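In the current project phase, the collection of sequences with tokenised folds has grown. One resulting record follows, to show the layout:
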Amino acid sequence: MKLLIPLDGSPSSEAALRFAPLLKPLGIDRVVLMSVCEDFDHGAEARGADDFYERESVLYTAYLRDAARRLEGAMTCEVRSELRCGRPADEIRKLARAEQVDLIMMSTHGRSGLSRWAIGSVADKVLRSSEHPMFVIGPKAARKGAPGAIARVAVPLDGSTPAEAALKTAREWALRLDARLYLVRAVDLPTFPAEEALIYSPELVEAARRAATQYLDEVAAGIEGVKVETAVLVGQPAVQLTSFCRNRKIDLVVMTTHGRGAVARAILGSTTDRLLHGPAPVLVIPSR
């Protein structure tokens, strides 16, 4: 497995250097660290761009060399670095294709210590259009720090085929990492303004819970080789799933970029966005 880790010089982006060693059981044979000197785009004012790029290149080259040295001490594979010039999101996608990487690992938040690009906004752009799975480390997960091992993996399901596409990768990772797999479904009952509040009968809520439980049991029955637990939550999915991950001490969430009805999960304003800002990193699988 080949792993690509974009870094912008910030401590937040370097959270990936702490999580990467946890993936060694997956068979990581190469890690590529990269940074990007962002394009200077100021027309005539760019006459000093050459000097700017030269200074930035020197800084980033030294930074990447040091980061590679630190990561080599925790990995048992080749670690190399590459510095590119251009638009960060575009260069990340280009390098991922050129290197034929299997996974991109990066933070969703950062404050650049070396250049003008912030890794958070770049992660958003890459995530929206990436052809590769992404191991995304949100701010809470970065502050919490890497666990000793990835022992608990959660897969949120909504009953759709696109959401279930995450199961194959989740099972494979759980098998290699010797982790327990949690299949979770949140029963989302419609909400209304207070003046038009609808009171759901206990019978209706229980019927929805039973249907969700039956669905998860059927899915779990088709998963072999790993320990599987199921959980049905009732309430707003983003809130319930985030609480579940926190209370169960989930180490990794695995989900696709598409959910019910194949509606694109643009990361802002979605359940995915809330989970990306939750207590655990998220492995995002492109459904296409």
User: Anything to note?
Assistant: Residues 112-117, 259-269 have pLDDT under 50 and may be disordered. The beta strands are 2-6, 30-38, 78-86, 103-107, 134-137, 152-156, 180-187, 228-234, 252-256, 282-285.
